[in-house]
Write a structure and sequence with these properties.
The chain is an alpha/beta fold and about 220 residues long. Helices cover about 40% and strands about 20% of the residues. The protein binds adenosine-5'-diphosphate and magnesium ion.
Amino acid sequence: MIITVINQKGGVGKTTTSVNLAYVVSKTKNVGLLDIDPEGGTTTSFGMKRERKELPLGSKSVNIFNVEVFPAHLGLLKLELNGDINKIVNIIKEISKNFDILVIDTPPNLGTLAVSSMLAADKIISPVAPQPLALEAIKNLDSRLQSIGKIAIAYTNFSKKATNLDLKNVKFVNIAVPQSRLFIDASRLGVPASRYEEIRTKRLKISKYFEELAKVTLE
Ligand SMILES: Nc1ncnc2c1ncn2[C@@H]1O[C@H](COP(=O)(O)OP(=O)(O)O)[C@@H](O)[C@H]1O
Ligand SMILES: [Mg+2]
């Protein structure tokens, strides 16, 4: 199963979602995590560096905390500009065959890489920040999803209260991840927040949200 995390707005929590979802699901499933964002947020969240080489998509991965992470590399920029969407979709599907679940973190736009990742997806998740601009972005995403015939599951980030908009192809679930310092502390150390709290606090608060998100996504 391919789970693509998407939202053309930056800073809403795509990378956070990808990283933590992959980490919690890897407890029970064989999980791959494809960083298809040239910025490489997922790559650094797992303590790795972006590859300074142009690599074929999916050609390199490293197992960290039981998640097979495909780091971002220079080749992604080329694919974003000149890539063939059908070819990228096929490569993503090939990569996913090695896993129970392949999670994909996408760039903050609806360009070649993001659209290919949406088309390849069995499930799409959108984190939504409850601010006017972010809500505008999710409405645009809804139109885009309608045009390609796909549904996304949206959940609320940076808030204690779940947002609920009545859209056609974006379905809001009752999950709200509050603001938490854990995300900032963990990203400074280059580990997923759910891993960080497991080791540091032994009380799983953040992880619970992503377990819930995994549950509604996989059902
Ligand atoms: N619930 C949250 N509380 C506090 N900080 C958060 C939360 N979710 C994400 N962040 C932080 O906000 C920033 C942007 O999140 P990120 O996942 O990188 O967004 P995107 O990938 O959509 O650009 C990151 O520094 C991340 O650690
Ligand atoms: Mg990101």
